[in-house]
Amino acid sequence: MIYLIDDKESRQRDYGWDEKMFQEYSEFLIHIRDVHELKERYKNIFNNDNVLLIHESFPLDNWERDFHTLLNENKLPIAFFSGSKNARFVEDNICMLPPNVLYANLATFVKTNCKTFQSFRTLAFGENDIIEEEIRQRVKSCKIQNTKDDFGSDFSSNKKMFFAIAQDNIDEVPFLNDSQLTKNWDFFSEEKLQKQISDIELDSFVRHFLSNVFYDVIYIPLYFGNVWSDYLGLRLALHIRLTKTINQRTPIFIYGVSSIDELINNECFDVLKLSGVRLIQSDNKSLVGSLSDSLTTLSIGREINKIYLPIPTNIGDNHSVVNKWSIYRWSKTLGDWDKDIKKNNEDIYTSLYFKYLTILYPESEISYMKDDYLRLKKTEQMDINVVLVDDEADKGWYELICHILSDVNGIVPDYIGDELNGLSQEQIISLVMDKIKNDNDINIVILDLRLNPIDFDESVKNMTGYKLLKEIKNHNRGIQVLMFSATNKIWNLQELQKAEADGFIIKEAPENSIDSSFTKDVISQFVDNLSRCSCNIYRKALWEKFQNEKKQLEMLRRRKKINMEYERAVRTLLTMTEDALFSQNLKYPFATAFMNLFRIIEATANEWIETEPVVEKDEKGYFVRSFFKTRKSDSILLKFNSKQFEEPYRNNILEFDKENPKLPYFQKICNTLYIVGCYNSDAFEIVVKRNSFTHPNLIENSEIEQFTQKDVLSIAKLVDQLIMNQ
């Protein structure tokens, strides 16, 4: 049985392996998608008759040591695939190759190895294994012919040459034994270039051998490494062009026995479109003739648009590219170089793809942001507690956010990062919600939209970050949630806004960097969003207060202290207040929230106060006095000073006025607050403010009364007392 161990379903679909394909080959091929399934099946997997195909970044969690012990003990045929493998390697029962090659040849491999394991060659080369052998045969023939031909040893050149030779092809070059011809030449031949080669080795080669000595011409072989049909000479040539050394513009000859038509499908073929790069044959005539060729080389910056490079498979997908690229651009803008960021940026400087991006969008155009621009706007809110939820947090995001929050603003954030890897969507949501519920101090969450591999294939509503946003808001609408993601699709942003996200920050994709100020603008938006969220953390406690009030209303109704209509009305007004505060669209949310809360006071007054006066007469039926009273306790209403706050006198009864028989609104509200035990100077100011807003005097005041966060908190406190005291 062949076991494929790979967790990225999006990668499999990109290479043509969907569920239908796996089902077609299910008799001989079993797909392991996560570490839990791997643990359940390990006794069957580690059987001498089986073959393992495993992606190097498959998340093993804390089972990694046990897994590798089992591998060493059982000695099964095993193929490791990873995007860091730029070439194919086959030796005995070991194979290393890129994911695109594995999935391209997987069907052929299953067919030829379904009964007993034969070889990994069909996995590495597919049905076209003959090309590899053909190249080696042609190189061998060229070597034989070169030993017979006269290459004109009297030719000499004063040019300083660099000649790289693949170890297996050392007899291919006719110049090695002519000391006169090669007196200004440096030859390079190293055994390690026969092994598995990645961008790290190629970058190291360029920086080590081409950084200190200037050469007039560079020669590199088209074939080296374990698999010649990978044409790694093209990749090395592109590394030379994209790496900043004194030889970045030196003319390059790539020698081999292949034609351009044979190379056209190689991902680095475009290097041959650049000025100063030429493919030549390895025969004597072509090699010697190239010595007299004069190649003109233009700046790579002027020619970079001739090159197209696909996203490398070791990164995985566009989301991963965006994370790496954003961390790099942010670190350059902020000047932060923590170890995790250094590791990220080392990948930028060694990966061919990211070198390509740094030429497209030069580092020199990134402007540094001083700390003064990173300070949050002043807020009266205290105890700001932030948690970052991002599976890429440990790769540099946490340190960058720490620089802004902790180093500049004195707010130390918490984070959830690596522990998310390998978990299902349900497990991720459970882990994060447990953290938020158990740590009651958290009031701002910076939340990545994509936290699980399945998120790359789902609509926004099925993504883990979206579901977490809904869970957080269901737990407490007042917790501020700032979404952080690579998506810039307008429909995704609209859905997140509908789900009450309190802000959205786009992680910078390479194409965004065409605007050199984009990074700085996004960081400024991030700081502005954090400032706004910090000002709004009061909403968490306010929402909790509203929920407690709703519970109190239900209890009062069950005890028959209030009726169902009053409970329903007040609950509705509390929810309307929440909606006003948490809405992204209201221009005057504080005014709407204030007036909804005041309507609760009015509804309570209507429940408590009789609006018809009581007329008191003596025994003979003569009028004694008239007054107003409460409906529930028969208490007589008192007269309150409407000009300024003062406690009412107990014998200062609010009497009936024949000329104005209605119960004055101001007296009705103040009496309600007084009876329930809520009347004080703050309550008086609230009533006055409501009246000024409802009945504006535009002759004396040029503007309508405005409301602030402080006003909303003040009336919310008053309403809470009003409900709890009933």
From TrEMBL:
Residues 441-514 form the Response regulatory domain. Residues 169-280 form the Inactive Receiver domain. SUPFAM superfamilies: CheY-like. One of its GO terms (biological process) is phosphorelay signal transduction system. This is Response regulator. It comes from Pseudoprevotella muciniphila. The lineage of its organism: Bacteria, Pseudomonadati, Bacteroidota, Bacteroidia, Bacteroidales.
